[in-house]
Amino acid sequence: MENEIIAAIMASTLDMDNMTSDRIEALTKGHGMLNLAAICSANSIANDVLRGTNIMLTDENVGRLPIDDILRKAIEAAEECGADAANAALISAALCYFAGTNAQAGVPAGNRKLGAMARIIAGVDRCGVLAIPTPKANNRISGYAAVRAVYDEVFNNTLTPIEGAILPLGVGGGPLYGHNALGEDIGFSELAKKGAYAGTKGMLTAYSNVGMPPSPIIAAIFGVAAILEIVHPDSEVAEEYGEFFVANSAYVAGLGACEAAGLPEKLHIRGTGEEYDTATVVGDFGVIMKDIGGPSVVGMIAFEEMLSAFEESLAIGAGFSGGPLQPPLGHMTADAVLALKVLLANDGDVDKAAEAINEVKSNFYLEPTIAKIATNTIARKSEQVRRGPVTKAMILATEGALTGETLRIAEFTYNKLNEGMTLKEITKALDDEKLNNVQTAASGLFSGMMGKDIQINITNYSGRSRRKENPFLDNYPGFDTRADVEVTVDGEKIVFEELANKILPDAMLNKKMDILEAVPLAAVPITELQLCGHTIINVIVPAAVAGAMGYAEGDLKAIAKEAVRGAYVTSSIPGGMERAMDVAKRAATIMKDLN
């Protein structure tokens, strides 16, 4: 193999920061996203559980349980990666839940709740559901919407037939109410189900009314959390909902929330197929959320992305780090849950966990190879903070894809430069290939989903569609995107000219439902292209080869500029220029040593 190719491969893969335009150094300690914090916390939890530490909550008559220590170390791992205490508490509690712990145990002495335990260990105050924000989906709302909706029903007197003002002395507040028919069969059951239903509907309405796509799963969790601030959160309930010591008010609230949100009855973890009862999950996370303290928007984003580990993530409105789109690296949290679940199910077998992660990446993404490289980047970055079996499995699953694609692009670039193509022409050719791969994959995805022959053709993808001339917008098409797409459905062609800035505003504001129903066919592949700054292998590997070959007389700035400007898709956001210069310089240095 030519020394130039060896030098380019080494230069491209030595520093994972160069593989992306995303600001991933900020994820290690800075005020950034919290996916690295979640991955590091998962490493900590996996280590403890695989050593045999009991992760379950019990109502034992002791001051501390083993789960206290697991939570403390998980919270410390998240904080080490820049999470504040409240976000670290939420991340760690959610991951412990996915690792197999229960959300609550015991009434009343020895009563333990996972969210409250995490909050207390982290040393943060409880703030109440109304102050907790949703994850950001362009905008964000807060749990106030759920709380208000519940209290609207309270003042309308529609939640319970029990009139507290006439409760006899010795009944209200005692076991005659709380452990018998009046409370369990009527009071708690009806209040939990109706209240969660109302709170969930309130969240869904608020989502929509501020221009956000409603998230059924987040709305349902907030709906449960809101009513569990009123109703006894772990009471027994009427036998119609389940056996004694099996069903409780949180579960019944989960039923009401799931009904309001239209959630499926069961959820399944990607890669393992493990089945969860949705009402139980929603009820448990509602219990956790009501006690957790005050996580921020980025903490809630990390939490929502964990929920995208479910196969049904698109249907339930969870995050999108589970595919089919590859999000910016800061959103990638689903892999932490997937790796954790597979590791624990296979007694810590890293090879089996890696196989499962590889399979998920191969089957659930528009660009499987790019999705694997993105996972490799974020796992290796996480290991700069905290190593463990979770990151080891993620790296093992994806190292082959990184190596193979780097080699393919390096050889292509080397051959084409020797044939006389310019570097700019080479990176454009690679991005032409990328665009074609995305539209082909999207065509296959929608054809399978809809049972029709769907062909998607992106005829124009560029920057600066509606704004006045601006060099930034001209060079970075992730902003003010000019997107023209032709979609053919069973032979009938639909043309979306200027999708982002003409079609969408007109269809939304004028409620043109026929157009809006067809828009996803064009929007999904365009969004994949807009987000692709997360992995800039089409920029840095050609730049490294050029640096190794002494292209442009070794002018690093000229090499970087050509590589970035040719890569009209990959250069969706700024950042490629510095990375291209760095790898070109590294490759040239390595060549000196090789020679």
In words, what does this structure look like?
58% of the residues lie in helices and 5% in strands. Strand 3 (266-268) and strand 4 form a beta hairpin. The strands form 3 sheets. It has a 3-stranded antiparallel sheet with strand order 5-6-7. The chain contains 25 helices and 7 strands. The radius of gyration is 26 Å and the shape is globular. With 595 residues, it is mostly helical. Helix 3 packs across helix 5 (85-99), helix 9 packs parallel to helix 11 (249-261) and helix 21 (499-509) runs antiparallel to helix 22 (513-530). The chain starts with a helix and ends with a helix. The model has no long low-confidence stretch (mean pLDDT 94).
Short description:
The chain is 58% helix and 5% strand. By secondary structure, it is mostly helical.
List keywords for this structure.
25 helices; 595 residues; globular; single chain; two-stranded antiparallel ribbon; mainly alpha; three-stranded antiparallel beta sheet
Specify the number of helices. Answer: 25
The portion of residues assigned to helices is 55-70%
The radius of gyration over CA amounts to: 26 Å
Shape: globular
Strand order of the largest sheet: 5-6-7
Mean pLDDT, all residues: 94
* Category from helices, strands and their pairing: mainly alpha
Strand content: 5-15%
What kind of sheet is the major sheet? Answer: 3 strands, antiparallel
Contiguous low-pLDDT stretches (5 residues minimum) are: none
Count of DSSP strands: 7
Distance between the termini: 14 Å
